[in-house]
Structure formats: C-alpha cells, structure tokens
UniProtKB/TrEMBL annotation:
This is ACT domain-containing protein ACR. PANTHER family: ACT DOMAIN-CONTAINING PROTEIN ACR10 (PTHR31096:SF23), ACT DOMAIN-CONTAINING PROTEIN ACR4-RELATED (PTHR31096). Residues 116-199 form the ACT domain. It holds the Pfam family ACR10_N. Keywords: Repeat. It comes from Hibiscus sabdariffa (roselle). Binds amino acids.
C-alpha cells in the first residue's frame, strides 16, 4: 500500500481566528500512535477540540481539530515544523519514486544524544521561565535541570537537554541558542556553554530512584476534592460495553476537558498495549467531553476479564481526575513546590510541565531559589518529579494554597 509523501500529514489552517485547524494523518498503524501524535500536539501548545480515529489494524486514518492561542510564533514555518514532527512520529516507511511503503520490520530508535547547557547570568524574577520558554521554542527537550542561586546575585543553570532537530552538535545550532538566550536577558550573560555528555555523566546526574517517605506522603496521598480545585469523581464516567461490537470493547468516557486530556487517555491505552480500531472525541458546551473508543487487546480480542476491565477503568479515572500531582510542603525552614507526573512505559515524559510551573511562579512574582527534575520509582510506577525550592522571602507573602492552585490550574489549562 502506497501513499504520496506529502499526504501522510495534511494540515488545513483555519481561515478565521478562533476556528479550529484540521490535522489529518494517513499512515501505517502501530499501537500507541495516537498517544505519540497527541503528545506532539501538546508540545506545540495545541488543544484538541475534536478527533476521529479509524484503523483496520494495518493502516489508520486520524483527524484532529485543533486550536491554539494566537501568538506571533504561529506562522507558516511553525505549521511546517509541526507537520514534519508528525510525519517523523508515523511508523517507519521507505521511499520509492515519491511514494511511501509500509515497512513491517521496525528497528528500535537510537536514543538521542544528551547535551549539558551551562548558563551563568544575573538573577531576576521570571528568569527561569524565560530561559525555559526559549529552550522549548527551539525544540530542546529538558531531561533534567539543576538551578542554584549564588549569594552575589548570580545564578547557575544546568540543563540536560536533547535536540529534536538533532543538530546541537553543530556550531550553527549552538550559536542560534546563544543568540536567542542573549536576546531575552536584561543583563549581559556571564557565560554560556553547550557540550555533549556521555552516559557516565548523565548517570551521575540522576537523582536517587527513590524519594523520602515524607515527600511521597505529601504528593501521593492528596485528596483531590480537598487539596486542589478539580472535578468531582461524580463528574467523570468510564463505562465499558462488549455487546455493541463482536470484536471490540466500547469504552465510553464523559468528563471535563483539561490540557492534554486526549494525550492522557491515549498514553494510558498505550501503556496497557491496547489498540483503538475506531474512536471519536468532541467537546460539548461547558467544556464537557464525550469520548467513544472501540478497543481490542494485542491478541485481537475484546476485554472480557472483569478484573482487567476494572483495572483499566480505575486507571483512566485517576488520569482524568488528576494527571499530575501538585503540593507545596515544608522542608525544614524552606518551602518547596512539588509536581509529579507519571512516565510512559516508553520512558516519555509529559511535555511542557517545567515550562508551565515556571510560568505560574512568574505570574505570582515568586522567585525560585533552586530547582531540579528527577525520575523516581514510587510503587510500581516511574514518575517525573519536579522539586522547586521557593525564595524564602517571596514564599512568606503568598499562601501555599494560592501557589498550589495557580500551578495546578495552569498545568490543567484552566487559566
């Protein structure tokens, strides 16, 4: 089966502000493709307001209706870059005479090179968010960060990053990053350096795989209705039906919309190795979402085991109610913001979390004394945990609950 290269992903931009643009993907199928595509759309800051998915198990046809906040950065080149990233996420194909053909034997992708970006500059409010925004706009994925403020008013930022464009080893790409960072600085940059790091350096930089029990108690025993503004469990419905299709289990979901909702559903199904044969998603009035998914197991059968149905239903409800954990806690005399999100079994983390955390703190005019990102095993799941030590003076003037609420709402797209 062949398809013209330009037809793998087609983007029809909206003609009127506020109307959705339409993204169509027509390519070979694979388990988890929907999750990978939704993750890219989330990384580009797009909200999915409607979606249709259909596949015969070998070839799939997916349509997303997406909207974005109007910004100067959304020009034709940005849409072309989005298209390239979506094409890259589709199953490997070979090219012949302008046509693409499905190649069933897929080689595992090579892990991307990790680079260490060292930035030393004068500190100011909102600096960390401005730097993070630059790195995200340049398609650098932040794998780990260590930020420390020095008493003389300078700050040392260490970012372990990978480059989506795979060009960070080149002088031209590094100079592009230096120049963009210099443009956002109010004071001269003291030093900025980028170097590739080997696995031994990356391993040494990793945090302990376990967190102290005091921290896990704080962020993993949250009562949603008491601690954070959220939807009630009564507002989320996950129902399964095996009577409507001879070969599929229907999963019907009704819930409130949030940032990355479809990604949260798709990554959960990906982790369970479930395939969507047909699906429809749309947002009704009042930001209520209605989702129908016809799914099957890897063996091509519907889910009939009640225990498997219950486990999947419970996991989906958790992801719909609280896809991230947020808490502000005391660490001795200091105040620390903790944010955690589950990591996919494929080791992919949720995009733009650090970006949104730093943006929320910038909006609150709260200074960051230090910050770090690490991955930790909690129970039988791997979590990406963001630990941000707040400036002692600023933290005293703003209530913990206000910090929690602002960070939570921004991460959920409710700001």
């Amino acid at each position: 089966m062949g398809i013209l290269h330009d037809d793998v992903v087609i983007i029809r931009q909206s003609e009127k502000e506020g109307d959705p643009s339409v993204v169509t993907v027509n390519c070979p199928d694979k388990t988890g493709l929907g999750s990978d595509l939704c993750r890219i759309l989330l990384f580009f800051g797009l909200s999915i307001v409607r979606g249709d998915v259909s596949t015969d198990g070998k070839w799939c046809y997916i349509v997303f209706w997406v909207v974005c906040k109007p910004t100067p950065s959304w020009d034709s080149s940005r849409w072309e870059l989005l298209k390239k990233r979506l094409v890259d996420a589709c199953p490997s194909c070979s090219s012949a005479s302008g046509f693409l053909y499905y190649r069933s034997e897929l080689l595992p992708p090579k892990p991307p090179d990790v680079f260490l970006l060292k930035l030393c500059c004068y500190d100011r409010k909102g600096l960390l968010h401005d730097v993070t925004q630059v790195l995200c706009s340049l398609e650098l994925n932040i794998k780990k960060v260590k930020v420390s403020t020095i008493p003389d008013g300078t700050v040392m930022d260490l970012f372990f990053v990978t480059d989506t464009r795979e060009l960070l080893h080149t002088k031209k790409r590094q100079e592009e990053i230096y120049k963009t960072l210099e443009d956002i600085m109010q004071d001269p940059v003291i030093s900025c350096n980028i170097e590739r790091v080997g696995p031994e350096i990356t391993a040494c930089s990793q945090a302990s795989p376990f967190l102290p029990s005091a921290i896990t108690d704080d962020i993993f025993r949250l009562e949603i209705s008491n601690k954070l503004p959220s939807v009630s469990s009564n507002d989320v419905s996950v129902m399964m039906d095996n009577t409507l299709s001879p070969a599929h289990t229907l999963v019907h979901i009704v819930c409130q919309d949030h940032k990355g909702l479809l990604y949260d559903i798709m990554r959960t199904l990906k982790d369970y190795n479930l395939q969507i044969s047909y699906g429809r998603f749309y947002i009704k009035q009042g930001r209520k979402c209605d989702i129908d998914l016809f799914i099957m197991q890897a063996d091509g059968k519907k889910i009939v085991d009640p225990s498997k149905q219950s486990a999947l239903s419970s996991r989906l409800k958790v992801e719909l109610l609280q896809p991230l954990r947020v808490a502000v806690v005391s660490r001795g005399p200091d105040t620390e913001l903790l944010v955690a999100n589950p990591v996919e079994l494929s080791r992919m983390g949720r995009p733009l979390v650090f970006h949104d955390i730093t943006l929320a703190l910038k909006m609150l005019k709260t200074c960051i004394f230090s910050a770090e990102i690490g991955r930790h095993m909690i129970g039988d799941l791997e979590w990406e945990v963001y630990r941000v030590l707040l400036d002692e003076g600023a933290s005293l003037s703003i209530s913990r609950r206000k910090v929690e609420e602002r960070v939570w709402k921004l991460l959920m797209g409710w700001e």
